[in-house]
Amino acid sequence: DIQMTQSPSSLSASVGDRVTITCRASQAIKNYLAWYQQKPGKVPKLLIYAASTLHSGVPSRFSGSESGTDFTLTINSLQPEDVGTYYCQNYNNVPLAFGQGTKVEIK
Amino acid sequence: EVQLVQSGAEVKKPGESLKISCKGSGYSFTTYWIGWVRQMPGRGLEWVAIIYPGDSDTRYSLPFQGQVTISADKSITTAYLQWSSLKASDTAMYYCVKVDYGAISGAFDVWGQGTMVIVSS
User: pLDDT for B47-74, tens place per residue?
Assistant: First the structure.
């Protein structure tokens, strides 16, 4: 099975900072990688699919990129409403595994 | 508007059976995969199972194989997740999800509101 290793597990940054979260797949998954945001106490939401395509309605400060089996979620200019946990997910094939999550807080 | 509306919270005893539901609307229910994601208290997201309502093709995550059953009734555009004998470790929030595109290889673009399942003696 493909394993998704996400890092860091948590981070604290100031409003306006650029934040980067990384997800590494244990084998090639093409660009079948999604990012989700879960705000505290809320339902997860799709942010990015196909590694770098923003889902409808997602602010442009979010972006995704890929390099082989390494994937990156970037938040340019962190905002207070971005606090929450972010998950990557492989959907190339079953099992449709999620990463462990990255908790983002405001310093 | 595409929506997934899940059944309400459940409190059950160990050993009891349970079936939770997820009603899809606003899209062609039979042509998109629909699945379930578990989130235990304070923990991350885990994919459980997925079904194609058009022909009831199913896939399970290995840890959940034999522990739960996913099904769908396309006549009422509803998917289900059921347990025959609950354990305390089944206590979690369960989210219903719709897969984008018409293939299994798609992101989860729509999420239900979640069904909290509590198993306690």
Answer: 999 999 999 999 999 999 999 999 999 9
Shortest CA distance from A96: residue in chain B: B47
- Are A65 and A74 in contact by the 8 Å Cβ rule? The answer is yes
Express each pLDDT in A51-94 by its tens digit.
999 999 999 999 999 999 999 999 999 999 999 999 999 999 88
| β-pair type (B3-6, A10-13) | unpaired
Tell me the chain B residues in contact with residue A44 when contact means C-beta distances shorter than 8 Å.
Answer: 37, 45, 95, 108, 111
pLDDT digits (tens, 9 = 90+) for B19-36: 999 999 999 999 999 999
**Chain B residues with CB-CB distance to A under 8 A?**
35, 37, 44-47, 50, 59, 61-62, 95, 99-100, 104-109, 111-114
With contact defined as beta carbons under 8 Å apart, do A47 and A33 qualify? no
Residue A62 near residue A47, CB atoms below 8 Å: yes
